[in-house]
Amino acid sequence: MKWKLTCRDAGDGSGDVILELPDDLLQAAGLAKGDTLELDPDPDDSSAIRLMKVVRCDVCDASTAETGHGVLQAQWRDGERERMQLCRSCFGYAMATLKHAHWVNHMFDDDPDPGQED
Ligand SMILES: [Zn+2]
Q1: How remote is the CA of residue 98 from the centroid of ligand 1, in Å?
Q2: Which long-range CB contacts under 8 A does 1-4 form with residues at least 24 apart?
Q3: How many domains does the chain have?
């Protein structure tokens, strides 16, 4: 989808620009008030900018703007929800740590562990 928006001067002498994002744009882009956005020129259209949501890793606080992010998420039957957004490094560490811990806990089991099949 494409939107054409109007920028206006913040009017405080700072040179800042105010860009009002309509609700349908926020909803379509999965954005919410409080999100941090990064502006990049659109490589396909020199008159357009790309707004990218900046997600910070919940563990190390690194920006995931360049690599994207992984999500570790749970929705338990009692209604509790847990969610972590992780940078590539922390996500890789979590995956490797979980697999290794499972392997250590079951390395002397008599039966082959179906959880170790990749
Ligand atoms: Zn991280």
Answers
A1: 16
A2: 1/25, 1/28
A3: 1
14 in a structural domain: yes
Q: Which residues constitute the domain of residue 72?
A: 7-116
Ligand 1 centre from 63 Cα, in Å? 8
Condensed to tens digits (0 to 9), the pLDDT of residues 63-82 reads: 998 888 999 999 999 999 99
**In angstroms, rounded to a whole number, what is the distance separating the alpha carbons of residues 35 and 53?**
7
pLDDT in tens, 17-63: 898 889 999 898 888 888 888 888 888 888 888 888 889 999 999 99
Task: For the beta carbon of residue 63, count every other beta carbon within 10 angstroms.
Answer: 14
User: How many alpha carbons fall within 13 Å on the CB side of residue 104?
Assistant: 6
- The rounded Å distance from CA 4 to ligand 1 centre is 35
